[in-house]
Amino acid sequence: MKRNDCLKNLVRLCLLVCGWLLGACLLTACQGNGGGTETRMPDTSTATDSPVTLPATDTDSATASETQPATGTDAETEPVTERVLSVYEVIDSLRASDYAASLGKTDACGLRDPSAVGVRQEAFTTVRYPVPADNEVGVVINVSEFGITPDAADNSAALRELLTRVSEMQGSVKLVFPVGTYRFNSTLNFYGLTDLYVCSDQPGTPFSILMTEWSPGIWLENTRNILFSDFTLDYETPSAVWGEVTGGDAVAHTVSIRINDAFDLSNPRYKGGKITWGSYMEMYRDEETGKYCPNDRGNLLYNSTGDGIKNIQDGVYDAGTRTLTLTFRQRIAIPAEGTVVNVAFTMYENFGFHAKGCENIRLEGAYFYHTTGMAIGMSSCRNIYLNRVFLSPREGMLMTATADGLHCMNCTGDIVITGCVFEASHDDCMNINGRYLTVKSSEGNTLTLTGLDVPVFPGDVLEVYSKEDLHIVGSFTVTAVDAKTGILTVAEDTAGAVTDCFAANITQSPTLTVRDCLMGNKRNRGMLIQVRNVTVENCTFRNICHGPVQIFSVPSSFGEGIMPAHVSVRNCKFFRCGATDVNIFSWSATGGTAPGTVQDVSVCNNFFCESVYYPVQVSTGGNVTVADNLFDRIGTRPDPMNPRCAVRVTCSQDVTVRNNWMLPFAKRFTVMNTREASKDKRNQRVVEEGSVLLEKK
């Protein structure tokens, strides 16, 4: 090769290298590095300015064709451009459904994984606890052979006789109900049974239990290894009815309601319209879902067996005009004529399904249409598994349970709830709680407790809290238990300082997993988490008046709840809920609470949409992370008394608010209440970083 040629090639090579380096520098400069704690603004270009990646559908055929390589010789060299969702398109996609969906590639939007957010729809068809085959159990019984049939007016006596025989059998037993509706006028009691399977003769097609009296439905006590599969439970005469307001008298405190033709209030069970225990709720129709929901701006009044509150003084039913007139104990705003109202004549009296002192309980493919109290209750049970349990109102009804959907107290082991629907209950969708003990006195290595209705065993660890502000007084490892006297021997010296305090057995707190569940259209709260070791993931909460998730402890007359810790809320969607979507807090009997009482909570990779106030509150928290969340049009009902923010932090320590993005509903909103939080001297080590405030499109 000639020398001149070599020089020319060398020059070309140098030019190529310089060009490549210059391009790389320009690219780096364009991309920027962001980060830090500074609030920044993203690119607010419209969808047409940014490439988009959506699964191609029939309506997207023109767009899809644009991404295909061109025909001809250029097809081999022209790269295929994969479209990328802008943050605004991510928001629109997440708003479109309760379920998770693959979104492909997306621009930065706050969420760590947008495609993971929401309920995975396949959970509703996945059987996790199958009924064993006939050759895998000891005895198979078709209940029709014992006179339990859909033709019987009451199957109660026949079932009692059958279960007596089952209790005398050895080995596992499978009770098979041919598909049909079975009427019972008294509770179905399953006492002291082991290794029992109650199922339909057609897997996937439920048999139906119809209660003809307002009594508990199914009651389990001291049972082990029991599975109920493929059944429905309903009440022939519902204790909840609805109608439309025809008028009212503000002075007399009365509202008149024309009851819907589907209900006969002349039935003696309704006591001529008088409500001893029950509720009055004004409703509205959600145009997006078509379902009726409690109106949190309307009247929500009740007479409660739980806390003794009595708002409803009297009720009278006029059968001729089908009009129920209720009288209230206080002045109320009279609703407009035509307002839909739900009225319940029971509250906490009866359970649809209840288990006490049981172990290894499984419900699979269970449908609860209406119950005259809590739908499902579990007390002092170990290992509870619910899969594909649906608490949804039957056609023509607006309310399912007249109290909680699921209430677990003093349970241990695993509580696993998957692929379930809890909606339209009067009270909480789920209340999962432990129970406080009270330390009367201490001396040396002993603690004296007032009552031992909570299981305590040698090796368990008790956390003891001050009644004044719930700060932790100490942790004590139990070495011996005297259940009669309530005296516990502990490894540590109490120094006599543990007196008149609360105590919680943190060792026996259950491990709670709630996954792929829908909750909504209800008056009270979604979830009350008053235990430890909790995962709430891939759930969707919609139209819940008093807030979807409360992680809290409030010592009260109910004695419910231990101080929560180790809680993760992730990959969830929240739509148009009242109050605060995720509320981390506690308060003592005196109202004052120390920072750091609710420990180790993370709220990550969630989508919050049209929250009425601020979606997340951290109050009295410790070691809390709120990260990688996307807030869409929050603060739809701004309150002058509340800060305009997505995340509010008060009276807490060691809180990190990181990489959260927000599209506000109105101006002057911030991601975190930074100014207020900095003035709160109780806050310690609170950090906000990477927040992004989007401009309205």
Strand content: 35-45%
Largest sheet: 24 strands, parallel
The tally of strands reads 50
Poorly predicted segments: 13-75
- Total of domains: 4
What is the CA-atom radius of gyration, in angstroms?
Answer: 30 Å
Average pLDDT across residues?
88
Categorize the overall geometry. globular
Structural class: mainly beta
Tally of separate helices: 5
The helix content is: under 10%
Distance between the termini: 63 Å
Keywords:
4 domains, single chain, Pectate Lyase C-like, twelve-stranded parallel sheet, 24-stranded parallel sheet, Thrombin, subunit H, 697 residues
Explain this structure:
The chain is built from 5 helices and 50 strands. It is mainly beta and 697 residues long. Strand 11 and strand 12 (292-294) form a beta hairpin.
Précis, in short:
It contains five helices and 50 strands. With 697 residues, it is mainly β.
Record the SSE blueprint.
Layout: H1 3-31, H2 61-66, H3 87-95, E1 139-142, H4 156-167, E2 173-177, E3 181-184, E4 188-191, E5 194-200, E6 207-211, E7 218-221, E8 224-235, E9 240-249, E10 254-259, E11 278-285, E12 292-294, E13 300-303, E14 312-318, E15 323-328, E16 340-344, E17 353-356, E18 359-368, E19 376-379, E20 382-391, E21 406-409, E22 412-418, E23 421-423, E24 430-433, E25 437-443, E26 446-449, E27 461-465, E28 472-482, E29 487-490, E30 501-505, E31 511-515, E32 518-522, E33 527-530, E34 532-537, E35 540-544, E36 549-553, E37 565-570, E38 573-575, E39 582-586, E40 598-604, E41 607-609, E42 616-619, E43 621-627, E44 630-634, E45 645-650, E46 653-658, E47 661-664, E48 670-672, H5 674-679, E49 684-689, E50 692-693
Parallel strand pairs: 1-2, 2-5, 3-6, 4-7, 5-8, 6-8, 7-17, 8-18, 17-19, 18-20, 19-21, 20-22, 20-23, 21-24, 22-31, 23-32, 24-33, 31-34, 32-35, 33-36, 34-37, 35-38, 36-39, 37-40, 38-41, 39-42, 40-43, 41-44, 42-45, 43-46, 44-47, 45-48, 46-49, 47-50
Antiparallel strand pairs: 9-10, 9-16, 10-15, 11-12, 11-13, 11-16, 14-15, 25-26, 25-30, 26-29, 27-28, 27-30, 28-29
